Amino acid sequence: MSTDDAGLTVAQMAQTTGVTAHTLRYYERAGLLRPVARTTGKQRRYRDTDVEWVAFLLRLRQTGMPIAQMREYADLRHRGDATTHSRLALLEAHQRALHERVTELRAHERALDEKIGVYRRALDATDRNDEGRQDS
């Protein structure tokens, strides 16, 4: 596919999305991004829809979705509206896994809070004992 110079260059896309040019090329090789339009000089040109899609991919990645699952979602998306139910099911399954992970992280946070409290109370008691010795 060839286009004029309209659209974002790799460098502009990297700056816009906050990912490196290497990551953009990797996403294309990995099947997460469909082949990007190119100029007659073979330079990539990204469209606004590519920016939105990369932002969504980054969001999926930040929520812990594995690349293989992202690739599956990207493939379903590329196949069109007939895959809406499958895409929904995939995202709902990921959301359930994310909720489980958040619950697990909150439990770990509570355990850390308890341990920090133990140490703070021990240090406070030591400080009070040290102050008492200095007054004598």
TrEMBL record:
Top-rank taxon, per record: Bacteria
Keywords, sorted A to Z: DNA-binding
Start and end residues of each HTH merR-type domain: 7-76
Coiled coil: none
Stored PROSITE patterns: HTH_MERR_1, HTH_MERR_2
CDD domains in the cross-refs: HTH_YyaN
InterPro entries noted in UniProt: DNA-bd_dom_put_sf, MerR-type_HTH_dom, MerR_fam
A Pfam match: MerR_1
Protein name: MerR family transcriptional regulator
Organism, scientific name: Microbacterium phycohabitans
Top-level taxonomy: Bacteria, Bacillati, Actinomycetota, Actinomycetes, Micrococcales
